[in-house]
Each structure stands twice: as structure tokens, then as C-alpha cells.
Amino acid sequence: MRKRFVFIPAMLLLFLLNSFVLKHKGAKTKSLTEGTSSEVANIIFKSADGGKTWQDISKGLPDNLQKGGIRSDGFLANDRGLYLRAGNKFYHSEPSFGATIWTKENFPGNQASIAPGKSGIFAYNFRGQFLQKINGSGNWSPMYANFQEQAVRLNGEKDWMYTHFKEKLVRDIFETAGGTVFIVCSNSLFRSTDRGKTWKQVQAGSGTMRLVESDGVLLATSKEGILRSTDDGQSWDRVIGDEGAGIAVERIDGGFAAIVNNTTTGTNSMYISLDSGKNWNAIGEDLKPSWISLLMKKTGLTQSSSDISSIKQMGKYLVCGRSDGIFRSSDLGKTWQPLTLPPVENFGFNFSVSGNVIYVIPNKGC
After folding, report:
1. Where are the alpha helices (DSSP H) in the chain?
2. Measuring CA to CA, which residue among 99, 115, 80 is closest to residue 31?
3. Over the stretch 259-271, which tens digit does the pLDDT of each residue have?
4. Who is most buried in 81, 143, 220, 309, counting CB within 10 A?
5. What does the alpha-carbon distance between residue 315 and residue 49 come to, in Å, rounded to a whole number?
6. Within 10 A of 197 (CB to CB), how many other CB atoms are there?
């Protein structure tokens, strides 16, 4: 009993000292071997040949992801590799054509969503608490601590979030190549050109806005459709919107691709623009749900239809996602072929693209 009494405080002291070092010196990156299983599989797949073959790169990730999956705004890919947020850790794998090696670091907050930035990755939550990991740095630094105070003063509209927290509900963050930062809230869009010292409300669309940029032109989704700005986001014009809300917008070679919901037909339509978002052409008519699928949904026989929900560029191809799979086009959307995906149980696929590489995550229904 005496030996046991001495052993427990020693372990507790070691734990406290280790926690103190991580908190004050930043998270140290190391190869991911602890708390994982060699049996982990079917969490994330990678293809570097246009979707012809797939490599399961799940090995080394934590076991609990195999059941719960990864949230759609908890991972992203860029030219530095693949990044993933889960639990109290942050995971990264560098671009490689060989075996995928995951590194992990302890994460200092509860921000579960991540987004790319000009200088490094942002992590954020719905309460507007932001961190950023500068490229080449091992530390996460707090950002935009004064955002909520200024945002509420600029827009005091009373909704559920304001009533309970006296805050704005944050949905997304976006940074342009020139360093202008936009924060998307449930009923407003805020803009800063001085690294978050001051914020201004922008008169733009509403809803779950997503922003992209190409050659100085900004596009955004909104409840009003697809919006376009040529003055760094100070003013916005609607370029697609006679049908319904904007679902997705992405940059492609020579322009943009977008998805808009058609409230009349109840389907999503795809468009591309090759003149910086001025003019748009409809594509992917053969990928729209069949009338039988739509009828079954309207009559309650099924909860979902095979609607188009995402579109991106993968090398020379356009790729788009539906609840029943991912499709590829080599002729700017005139014709589409389904990709042969790994045979795993899922509710659709989330995917991210970097160059010629596509990463696919089965949706577990979370």
C-alpha cells in the first residue's frame, strides 16, 4: 500500500508537467503511432491516377474515426498535403506517391472546423473563436479576438445565437490572396483588410455562404444564388439566381464552376464560366435525378435523391459528387463517367482535391 501511494502522485505529477509543457511551448509534431491500430481502415482513400485506382490511407489514424467518420469541414487538401481535425488532435500527411505517413499534434482548443488561409490554416468554431497555424510553424495562435464584439455592434439582429450567447453564429472564414479576410455568419458577411483589427459588414447575400477567388474576382454562394465581386468584396452582384440558392462554387482552370438549386424542379443544376464569372453555361444535365427518384422523394418513399452536391477540378478533369457516387468529366462537363469507388458502407462521399490527387472520405451519416 505504501508503494502504491507513492506511485500514483508521481504519475499525476508527470501528467501535469507534460500538460504544462504542451500548453506553453506549443504542440510538438511526431509520427503517429500511439493510440492507433494497424486494423484501422476505410476512413479515407486516395487516388493519384484520376480515380482509376484507390489507396486506403487510413492506417495510423485513431480507431474512433472508423465508426464516426470525419466531418466535411474537418479536412482539406492543398499543395502541402492533407490536413484533418478530429478529437483533441490535428493530423497531417505530406504529399507522397508512396506510403502515407500521418503526423499528429495535440490541439490547444475545441475548434473542429478548418479552412485554408494565405499564411496558414485556420481553425474555428461556431462561436467565432479562431486559431491559425502559420506555415512552417508548430504553434496555433489566437486570431480575431475582437471579432464578436465588433460584429454584434455592427449587426445586432436578434436570433437564437444572439439570444443565448450575445454572439454571431460563425459558419465559415475565407482569406483572399491579397490578405482580405471574410467571416461568414448566419445572417451577415464581415470583411477586414487590416488582419482583423477592424471589421465592416458587407451588404451581400445571406445563408451558408462559401467564397472562392480567381484572378482577383470573388464568387460566393448565398440564398439568392451565386454572387460576384470585382472590388475585393466591397460590393456584390448576383450572376446566377433565377432558380434558387447557391449550393457550391469552385475555381477551375480559366474560370469557375457552380451548383444552384432549382426550386421549381427540386433539383440542383451545374454551371461553368470561362470568363471570370460573367457568363455561365449549364452542364451535367444527364446527372440530374430521374423523375422517378424525385417522385419517390416527394411522396416520402425515400429521404433523399441522387442530387449533385459538389464540384471541383482534379487535374484535367472536373469531378462532381452525388449521394450515390462521384463522377468525372474530361470535356468541361459535356459528358460524365462514374468513378469506381471503394466498396464501403456509406451515405455518400465527401472529397477534397489537390492538383491531380483526390482524397475521398465515406460519409458515415454524421
Report:
1. 2-25, 65-68, 147-154, 160-165, 291-298
2. 99
3. 999 887 778 999 9
4. 220
5. 10
6. 10
Given the C-alpha cell 508521481, which residue does it identify? Answer: 10
Model confidence band, residue 301 (pLDDT cutoffs 50, 70, 90): low
Task: Cell numbers for 263, please give them.
Answer: 426550386
Q: Please write the tens of the pLDDT for every residue from 110-165.
A: 999 999 999 999 999 999 999 999 988 889 999 999 999 999 999 988 889 999 99
User: Which residue in 67, 73, 57 sits closest to 364, CA to CA?
Assistant: 67
> And the C-alpha cell for 334?
459535356
Q: Which run of H or E residues covers position 86?
A: strand 81-86
Mean predicted confidence (pLDDT) in 15-27? 38
Beta strands in 99-245 (DSSP E): 102-106, 113-115, 120-124, 130-134, 140-143, 170-175, 181-185, 189-192, 200-202, 211-214, 217-222, 225-229, 237-240
